[in-house]
Amino acid sequence: MDPKNVKSDLVLILDYGSQYTHLITRRIRSLSVFSLCISGTSSLATITDLNPSVVILSGGPHSVHTPDSPSFPDGFLPWARSHGVAVLGICYGLQLLVQRLDGEVCVGHKQEYGRMEICVEKPSALFPSGKVGKRQVVWMSHGDEAVMLPDGFHVVARSDQGAVAAIENPSAKLYGLQYHPEVTHTEEGMETLRHFLFDVCGVKAGWNMEDVMEEEIKVINDTVGPDEHVICALSGGVDSTVAATLVHKAIGSRLHCVFVDNGLLRYKERERVMETFEKDLHLPVVCVDAVDQFLTKLKGVTDPETKRKIIGKEFICIFDAFAQELESKMGKKPAYLVQGTLYPDVIESCPPPGSGRTHSHTIKSHHNVGGLPKDMKLKLIEPLKLLFKDEVRQLGKFLDVPEAFLKRHPFPGPGLAVRVLGDVTEGNALDVLRQVDEIFIQSIKDAGLYDSIWQAFAVFLPVRSVGVQGDQRTHSHVVALRAVTSQDGMTADWYYFEHKFLDDVSRKICNGVRGVNRVVQDITSKPPSTIEWE
């Protein structure tokens, strides 16, 4: 997807490493405005080539006082002013604006973290007149503060402690918020963003999945030659299925789908997924049994990053072999591999190619991104890599993917390898986990809770506990249950089950799964944890 072809003004976010940066992107897209996130130290040419209508400077963990603190390129602010591009600095972004324009930023006497109240002091562009004198709860996360503003700026809101909370210079189209409007803890944050984009900046909305579908089909047809063939790696999840359906719509029978049973699938996943592909989606799919190949490579491996990279490499080996088989049948070897990589996969795994992003930490290597071998022979097609999960589901509706399939909970590419902590081949860990997970998920469905939960699963822990079962002492496995709610998988809250439900599930597991005598629940949000355990 070429951002220049999107039928919407572009709001460009320069990323300085805040854990909330992705939320800015997501919140803006929810307003039907296209938004992209690139490195805060990108070149001026990179920024100008994207032709943004608005640029947002994100927050970050840095101080503008440190010598190596990241900043936008020289010439950026003059370019923005000469082209009428509005700039909004958030948290560190506000301080960066102040510092680069010869204002003063100092270490705050009282650092502000968490929920705080601010008061709007005067009529301004950022806050409509009705907000003057009104208080609102916002989310702060800063140690430094602006103490002297550059020429042309004035303070329009302060915190209860007297710190600058919002500044602006409307004639130069420069604005700053010391707090984070993108997080849900800022109660009027979405209203502030909506007002800023539409009323202050005059941004035109137009971001929708129907246009995305048409644009992606065009890109696929322009990329894949009229006689070329494509392989698609189907996992049975929403992402790869929507990607396959999209490519199939573009090139038809030249798409060849392969589903790999790597021994890391859920209970009866192979049978259920293949039936869905054939009956509901009518996709041409070949199933490859590679259980022994994967488990042999994973034997003795306990490090989660190593497991991910091994799995990524083995997948590619299978796809290469599948391509050679097709070549012997058709006389032409497929040149491309389709994957259902999403925007969060790219953000959490590693910097996007050519982005130069250096201020966000790698959270995990997604097997589609960080786990791919450098000598891979197939060229990648990733039609969803700029989309979030909920956007992929919307796209799936336009492609007539059955709603029941689109509502399936996410399942990680490395499968149960990241839900068995430690060596996946040790003992009967995989079989135990499959049974526990099936009981948990089926109980959720029976209780009518499945569609209210973003993702639910069980985890096999590398510990044993003492128990009493059948009047005998046992020393058996411990499993954890995890269920979260989320909009896009980038942040999540743990799901609150009724105690009766948890009691019933625990009894079913301990009575129905041999070798388990203790069940615990994960009640950690993201952040600080990730959704998956590895």
Q: What is the number of domains?
A: 3
At CATH level 3, the topology of the largest domain is: Rossmann fold
Got a strand count? 18
Distance between the termini: 31 Å
List keywords for this structure.
GMP Synthetase, Chain A, domain 3; 534 residues; 15 helices; GMP synthase activity; nine-stranded mixed sheet; GMPS_ATP_PPase_dom; Rossmann fold; EC 6.3.5.2; Rossmann-like_a/b/a_fold; five-stranded parallel sheet; single chain; globular; 18 strands; alpha/beta
Detailed description of the structure:
33% of the residues lie in helices and 24% in strands. It is built from 15 helices and 18 strands. It has a nine-stranded mixed sheet with strand order 2-1-3-4-9-8-7-5-6, with helices on both faces. Strands 12-11-10-13-14 form a five-stranded parallel sheet, with helices on both faces. The chain is of the alpha/beta class. The protein has helices spanning 21-29, 44-50, 76-82, 92-100, 189-200, 209-223, 238-251, 269-281, 291-298, 304-330, 343-349, 389-398, 403-406, 429-446, 499-512, and strands spanning 10-15, 34-39, 54-57, 86-90, 104-120, 135-148, 154-159, 164-169, 174-177, 230-234, 255-261, 285-289, 336-338, 379-381, 455-469, 472-485, 493-494, 516-521. The chain is globular, with a radius of gyration of 25 Å. The protein folds into three domains: 11-201, Class I glutamine amidotransferase (GATase) domain (Rossmann fold); 209-407, HUPs (Rossmann fold); 428-521, GMP Synthetase, Chain A, domain 3 (2-Layer Sandwich). Helix 6 (209-223) packs across helix 7 and helix 9 runs antiparallel to helix 10 (304-330). The relative contact order is 0.09.
